[in-house]
Amino acid sequence: MATDYYAILGVQRDASQDEIKKAFRRLARELHPDVNPDPKTQERFKEINSAYEVLSDPQKKQVYDLGGDPGGAGGAGFGAGGFGNFSDIMDAFFGTASQRGPRSRTRRGQDAMIRLDIDLEEAAFGTTKEIQVDTATVCSGCSGEGAAPGTSAQTCDMCRGRGEVSQVTRSFLGQVMTSRPCPQCQGFGTVVPTPCPECAGDGRVRSRRSLTVKIPAGVDNGTRIQLAGEGEVGPGGGPPGDLYVEIHENPHGVFQRRGDDLHCTVTIPMTAAALGTQCPLETLDGVEEIDIRPGTQSGQSIPLHGRGVTHLRGGGRGDLIVHVEVMTPSKLEPEQEELLRRLAKLRGEERPLGQFQPGQQGLFSRLKDAFNGR
Fold first, then answer.
1. Is pTM beyond 0.85 here?
2. Per-residue CA distances from 205 to 199, 211, 233, 243, 288 (Å)
3. Are 260 and 309 a contacting pair, CB within 8 Å?
């Protein structure tokens, strides 16, 4: 085989069509006559063009791989049939051309988001809120057209409504036509000689409006409610985007929310913890009596099932967890002290030994034990 087309393009014999095309484009950018006018380079450019025309054609490539003459399958080079890969050469220098045309003045508006503060009760059971929204709305003066009343947009006299202008340049391949957006109409194909004085030709103005938002039960901090089509109106009176309402739950004076459960702490004197008592608690469902059983210890918790926040997805509600804190008096009257001493004597607790349990060691104690091999 007199000519090794694979070697000319610098690819392996098992190279794919994509690899062959990439190799050709890379060499074409380096060797085309406009970049390097050396006659030897021009001959080299003709070689890579001939090699690519054969290897990019499945039939010619098959004949060539079998040792035949691919020229019999249609010829090669810059002859009459030598520009079958003209588009690939153009792609190598200018990239793939895109279809252009006049742009529409009407475009979809952007999404908007506002923050809504609600109370715990509203989040737990759901509610309906009236909100004020400042967004772009369709201009009433021009109905979104952008032109002053009594006027209208006119066809651009520079691009004649095409939205683009063309320019012809000369290259080694001859005349090449390129297109770009029209600088006069910015690619719209039309111009607005007299813009609307209310919106300055944008077709929209900012205004405040009221909306009713339904807040479902169980929302939490950061929950976003989507209101389709309630966002910003697009340029040229285009369709509006969406409005997102982000929920922010105000702190509660008694309850702390953890998921759908509510937590609170009740502080009782040691006598009530020892004897037992009942404490009224204002829950989300009304006042309920919390039963403190005799002998309740500090740190114990009392669950009230189904008294928490409604589950956002699915039925049911979370729980209300009441944490008990026993308060020990710091000062005693003489009579109170005498009564406690008598109680301690009756219970044999005048000099209690106490009950010790393993606790966490400090840093220096752990280091000491480590050095001592404990």
1. no
2. 6, 18, 9, 17, 54
3. yes
